[in-house]
Design brief:
Blueprint (H helix, E strand, L loop, with lengths): L1 H38 L12 H6 L6 H6 L6 E2 L12 E6 L4 E6 L12 H11 L5 E3 L21 E3 H11 L2 H12 L2 H14 L22 H11 L3 H7 L3 E7 L5 E7 L3 H4 L9 E10 L3 E9 L5 E9 L2 H12 L5
Antiparallel strand pairs: 1-3, 2-3, 2-10, 4-5, 6-7, 8-9, 9-10
Helix pairs in contact: 4-5, 4-6, 4-8, 5-6, 6-7
């Protein structure tokens, strides 16, 4: 009888030891999970709501890829000899070879991008479009506000994706933007979803798109810094840089009855048309203009200096075209210093 009791007691002790081991293992797992998630607080989460102060003050030491590949300048940065015409303007100059910010004025403030939006539309064409696709213009492509920039196409016109792309980036044609969106994604809303997803993947945490062309909408916005990220992506595509250096584009349209119509679409960039003079030793690689009443006059450029060093320069929300190009010229005058 005594032996049986001793055996039972021994079995109880074994079960107690096993139970204690399980409890200790669970505690260790919980502690490990707590440390793992607390360590991730310093990683970049591009889905966070936009905060200018949060972006410029964020600790990028834990996000090596982003910090290594992009400049993260302060919101404002003075450059000797550069004073923009207005404090309401946004300006930026970045050396992309060294990721050094040279000038900044309110670059994390929310602004309306106008047709600079088309940089994202162009990126998605280069990534997901087929330049040889044939597109028939649809009535919905012309659902635009009165007097907006259009190419001259009409319902039933037959063009290629390449023609739409050139009309988009050279002439900033809004009907081309709608046709591109409809053809690539099946609908404009679906394409806008693609735009916002791409913006998120590029780290554009201060941006939200509502259309493919940039005509005004209160909830369609970006920042000067996000435009830098977007243009930096766009210039990776040869199709984009080839198109953006043209001073004009000849658009040949096949009408529904088989006849042909030709339109000469001039660039919206005054540097390319000769209406404004670039500083000596400055060469345009690509860029985009934008103008609406709410956005003001805007220009984002990728340029090279005489040594081939690449810079991205922006002036946004200028009151007039003259002030826009005067301020941009002042910025570009410093890239050969």
């Amino acid at each position: 009888m005594a032996k049986k009791k001793k055996k039972k007691k021994k079995q109880i002790n074994i079960w107690n030891i096993l139970l204690l081991a399980v409890i200790l293992a669970i505690v260790a797992l919980v502690i490990a999970l707590v440390f793992a998630f607390s360590g991730r607080k310093n990683e970049i989460d591009v889905s966070n709501s936009y905060s200018p102060a949060g972006l410029e003050n964020r600790d990028y030491s834990y996000a090596g890829t982003f910090a290594d590949n992009y400049a993260v300048p302060p919101s404002s940065l003075v450059l000797d000899g550069v004073v923009l015409h207005s404090q309401s303007e946004r300006g930026l100059l970045i050396n992309t070879d060294t990721n050094e910010g040279l000038f900044a004025q309110s670059i994390y403030d929310r602004i309306y991008p106008a047709s600079i939006t088309k940089l994202m539309t162009a990126i998605l064409v280069c990534k997901y479009g087929n330049m040889s696709d044939v597109v028939v213009m649809d009535p919905s492509d012309f659902y635009l506000e009165p007097d907006s920039q259009v190419s001259g196409m009409i319902e039933g016109d037959i063009v290629t994706m390449k023609q739409l792309f050139y009309a988009l980036v050279v002439y900033s044609a809004n009907d081309a933007a709608n046709a591109i969106a409809r053809h690539i994604a099946g609908s404009v809303p679906a394409f806008v979803d693609m735009m916002n997803n791409e913006a998120k993947s590029l780290g554009m945490s201060g941006t939200h798109f509502e259309n493919a062309h940039g005509l005004h909408s209160n909830n369609h916005y970006t920042t000067a810094y996000d435009i830098y990220l977007m243009l930096n992506e766009a210039i990776k595509y040869q199709e984009f840089t080839d198109a953006m250096r043209l001073s004009f584009y000849d658009l040949e349209i096949t009408r529904a009855d088989g006849s042909y119509v030709y339109y000469e679409l001039g660039s919206t960039d005054h540097y390319l048309t000769g209406e404004a003079a670039l500083p000596e030793g400055v060469y345009i690689l690509a860029g985009k203009t934008g103008t609406t009443e709410q956005a003001g006059n805007c220009l984002a450029l990728a340029v090279q200096n005489k040594k081939g060093v690449l810079f991205i320069a922006e002036i946004l929300n200028a009151s007039t075209k003259d002030e826009l190009y005067a301020d941009m010229t002042a910025l570009l005058s410093h890239i050969n210093d």
